[in-house]
Specification:
Number of strands: 0
Number of domains: 2
Order of helices and strands: HHH
């Protein structure tokens, strides 16, 4: 995943250089938005979806384990 951020930073640099060479400020801003911000955010969102899924699964497994431990402790306390 860190390699992905390196590529993103390089792409931002390339598009920034493209935007600087535009004829007007508005054209530069539009170039940066439509060639960098929108596509890069979409690509990073799609490529990080597996990490988000792993995080959600880990959180749900931790909650499930906590509930099972709480149930074991409560049944153990009742039996004493």
């Amino acid at each position: 995943m860190p390699f992905l951020y390196l590529i993103a930073i390089a792409w931002i640099f390339v598009v920034l250089m493209m935007a600087i060479t535009e004829s007007s400020f508005i054209a530069g801003v539009m170039t940066f938005i439509f060639y960098c911000i929108i596509p890069l955010s979409l690509v990073l969102y799609i490529l990080s979806s597996s990490a988000r899924k792993r995080k959600i699964l880990a959180e749900s497994e931790a909650k499930r384990t906590q509930i099972l431990n709480d149930n074991k402790e409560s049944t153990h306390a009742k039996s004493e």
